[in-house]
Structures are given as structure tokens and as C-alpha cells.
Fold this protein.
Amino acid sequence: MAAVRKGTREDVPEIVEIYGRILTNEELGQASVGWIRGVYPTEDTALEALEAGELFVMEEEGALVAAARINRVQVPEYSQISWTQPDAPAERIMVLHTLVVDPRYKGRGYGAAFVNFYERYALEQGCPYLRMDTNEKNAAARRLYSRLGYREAGIVPCEFNGISGVYLVCLEKELEPV
């Protein structure tokens, strides 16, 4: 049974290896996520999340299979989106950033399980309004999020995380408080 926990400094090298495997798949044309090696994501991406206390990792039988950053920080591009709840209080909005699943474990449901954790965590923190984004090129992520009930609220052309020419797909979901 996969379990999610707060990330540690010891997890960062393995997270960076996951980034590398995803980037290699992108470079070989085996995946399309819209990331660029050396630009985003990098070791600093994981370290910044760790230092902020916002890094989460998923483990299965001792193997780190997925990671993400979870916080209440909405990127500036979100201000251009027509959200279903545009007046939702910022302190009640939770955001998922840089969700990665190790390509060696693709197709085993870890992405969906991580998003399920994100939703439970958000509710525990009093945040029923969920937001996230992905690159328009990332068809696999878009299919996953749609299947999990996320609505594409809009697409913003921008430079994102140092990558120019990005069409940022912004997604949302509102949970029923328990």
C-alpha cells in the first residue's frame, strides 16, 4: 500500500532522479510534459519545496514512486483565469505543484492515489477549493485530472518556470467539506 509522507532532505536526490527520467522520456519523444532539462524542474525545485515544508513523497515498499509540492500559493497566471469560485478566500484554496510519478512505475495508479491524498490533505487543512496547473502538452496529466473530476478553468499563454511559449492549463475542483 502506497503511503504519502512529508519529504526529507534524503529524498531530494531520488526526486531529482525522477525529474531526470521524465526529462529523458521527453527528450526521446516517449512523453510530452513540456519541461526542459536544466530549466525546470531542477534540484532547486525540490529543495525549495522541502525548505518551505511543502514537499510530499509517496513510497511503495521502500521505493519513492511520486512527489509533489502542496501549498496555498497560486501562481500569478491564476489571476487571468475565470474560476468557478473567483471569490474563494485564498486561505481556503490548496494548490498542487510539480506532481511527478517515476516513469518506472507508470500505469500503477500512483498519480491518482497522490491526487487523492492531496484532496484529503486539503480538506484536513480547511481548503475545499483545489487548484493546479499543467502544460497544455501534457495530455496524460490532463486525462488523469479530468478522470478525477477536475475542470479545466482556462489556458494562459505565458513563460512558466523559465520555459517560454507555455500554454498553462489551469484546473480546479471544489470538495464537499466533511
Q: What stands out?
A: The CA atoms of residues 21 and 58 lie 17 Å apart. Helices lie at 12-27, 43-51, 110-124, 139-147. The chain has a mean pLDDT of 96. Residues 12-27 form the longest helix (16 residues).
